[in-house]
Amino acid sequence: MRQVEPIQRMTEELAKLPGIGRKSAQRLAYHLAAIPLEDVQALAQALAQGRADIKLCLQCGNYTAEELCSVCADPKRRQDVLCVVRDPRDVAAMERMHDYQGLYHVLHGILSPMDGIGPGDIRIKELMERLENGGVQEIILATNPDIEGEATASYIARLVKPLGVKVTRIAHGVPVGSDLEYTDEVTLAKAMEGRREL
Questions:
Q1: Total domains present in the chain
Q2: Are residues 110 and 154 in the same domain?
């Protein structure tokens, strides 16, 4: 049975969202078709207005509705440590841990020559400008432990070391609560490399 054309259109648009497959998109489209039009309009308005209000923090590149994000605007944050991450979702993940008290630098991507993404396509120039202004004593490279994330971290480390800024990399390894027998070889190798004395 063919879908009603407006539901098909909604399904196609919803399926473009990350993590939403075709069946989930179809369920959402049918749900939206069943709720009052005012609720759908409120959702659409919240999405459109929210997107219009979001901008990049002038200092770190995180999402914000102000000139500076809440992290950069917080005078209690350490100004001498920068955690370099791929995108704003990574800032949110780091903030959930409540242990890190420094600032961030959001790259908005990673180096990926296969996809045509080079150093000029992500916020490396802005990172170097922040470091050259002084005050930062350590950068923590917190890109993902995949090929592109490792390449990005290595590239940035090579650029930063001549500045005399300490460069560290987040540790990678076996997740807490998992079983070794189900852990892949690359993760185990990283865990062995990052081992520490007790």
A1: 2
A2: yes
Work out the burial of residue 174: count CB atoms within 10 Å of its CB; fewer than 13 is exposed, 13-18 middle, 19 or more buried.
Answer: middle
Q: 88: exposed, middle or buried (C-beta count within 10 Å: 0-12, 13-18, 19+)? A: buried
Q: Residue 132: inside a domain, yes or no?
A: yes
Range of the domain at 12: 5-53
What is the pLDDT tens value at each position of the chain, 198 positions in all? 567 899 999 999 999 999 999 999 999 999 999 999 999 999 999 999 999 999 999 999 999 999 999 999 999 999 999 999 999 999 999 999 888 999 999 999 999 988 999 999 999 999 999 999 889 999 999 998 888 999 999 999 999 999 999 999 988 777 777 776 777 777 777 777 777 665
> Global pTM?
0.82
